[in-house]
Amino acid sequence: xxxxxxxxxxxxxxxxxxxxxxxxxxxxxxxxxxxxxxxxxxxxxxxxxxxxxxxxxxxxxxxxxxxxxxxxxxxxxxxxxxxxxxxxxxxxxxxxxxxxxxxxxxxxxxxxxxxxxxxxxxxxxxxxxxxxxxxxxxxxxxxxxxxxxxxxxxxxxxxxxxxxxxxxxxxxxxxxxxxxxxxxxxxxxxxxxxxxxxxxxxxxxxxxxxxxxxxxxxxxxxxxxxxxxxxxxxxxxxxxxxxxxxxxxxxxxxxxxxx
Length: 259
Known about the structure:
Strand order of the largest sheet: 2-1-5-4-3
Number of domains: 3
Number of strands: 8
CATH architecture of the largest domain: 2-Layer Sandwich
Largest sheet: 5 strands, antiparallel
Helix content: 40-55%
CATH topology of the largest domain: Beta-Lactamase
Distance between the termini: 67 Å
Oligomer: single chain
Radius of gyration: 34 Å
Strand content: 15-25%
Shape: elongated
């Protein structure tokens, strides 16, 4: 048995029968009440420990601030410390303007006020937040209100996801695609690309000149219906199968088929 868990309520042994039955029942009730209170306190301790473990180990930033007054910080988790680059003992009990730069504080105060006025959860798409240690970071945020038993706002709760790396990766991908498209369009060789189903998704200017179809006319159509002669269908499909299986094929210099 867990040493921290209260012992089960034991039956009374050797009860004093010289007193009245009412006194005995009163003592038993008191003992039962104490035992139930200890069980409830232990269950509360376990629940708090469980929630603390979750809050401290989730990768998302969790922030709780007061709903009234100057809305001081009540709770932040380890991810928030890492996100802000500030230890929690320098955050708890302070206002957002004492922790963050004015531009970031303006955004947070405005959104908190909007949250309290609306009275329901709101979601922020990517916003740029200036942090003290990590500079500019892109983040999404979900904000909701924790209410008391009278349905009055107690705490605005904010869950922040740092999407900076994903945003930068997306930007790099867009730049790479734009560069690739520029190279493909500038190529003097006709280049066509299609997905496994055969639908065309790449069609450069040289392909327009060679095959007589504009990019708008070619994109989305099946390559076999557009430019492959009937006599070449079998060999073309064989080549496509080899290409999508990873085999390197030799192609004619007249046109490059990216299957």
